[in-house]
Predict the 3D structure of the following.
Amino acid sequence: MKTKRSAISVRLLEQKIFSLLTLVSFLFFFSCQKEMVGNIIQKSSPSSLEKGILFYSDFESDIPSPSAPITGWSQQGPNADAVKISEEQAYSGSKSVKFTFNYNDWDGNNIVNGKRAEILMSPNPVCQKLVLGKVYWVGFSSFIPNDWVNDYKNNFDIIWQFHSSKNGPGEGNPLEKTGGPPMYAVVSNDSIKIYVRPNIQNGTYLKKLATIPLIKGEWDKWIVQVKFDYNNDGLFQLWQNDSLIVSYLNQSTIYHTDWQKNEDGPYIKFGIYKPQWGYVPTKVKQRVIYYDDIIVGDSTNSYDTFQNKLNKNGKDHL
């Protein structure tokens, strides 16, 4: 009898130990699963942005090749040295993006990389293509060095532009040499000129909105409010260093073309585009420009919010 009771006790003890081990294993497994799920969610979550801010880049990390668009940028240029992170100048932090375009690298036969050193947003950001009829805010800073040589007026440099999407509105026809970027800033001799192409037949009409002095050796702070629209509901306002220089309201800000195939809005490009370099006389053999703190926001923003963001970022440079 004693032996039978002992056997039963042993079995009960074994069952309790088994149950206890099972419970411990379950708790351990659950805790591990919870930690793993948390890590997965954290790793798959995008970088947090302020409410109303769609994109922000301060160039404190390197610019990758176009095959790595996850960082938000793609680049165009004749070689890998055309677009580089630099510590020579910075509006905020310690770095900016530097564009270097040499006359010897200019290639008129290569429209994509031969006439420019530029960056554009990769398809990942939600603001890569600005939706027609929606209001956006864009802020950025640019730096033109003191040794920038003024070229002839007809050998201009486009330093930022809203470029049309492929087969979309505002895309010029290269065969007919009509149209072009719906909105852009161009350095011509000793000034910066701001242009828009409203919805005129074939997009051939170009309207100059402002001419401002070219500033060298200092950071320029730019804020843009824009809505692209075919008809009289578009808008474009531009501030430079806290001064309103363009107020283009209730006007057409982009043009329809006979050859377009979609309604994809334009995207933003920064850097240097010098289309005439190899065709007409020039005074220069190299172009260099820097950009920093590029911010894109939706319509919930205002001039004051973007002014505060750029002033805060560049407090050491104001």
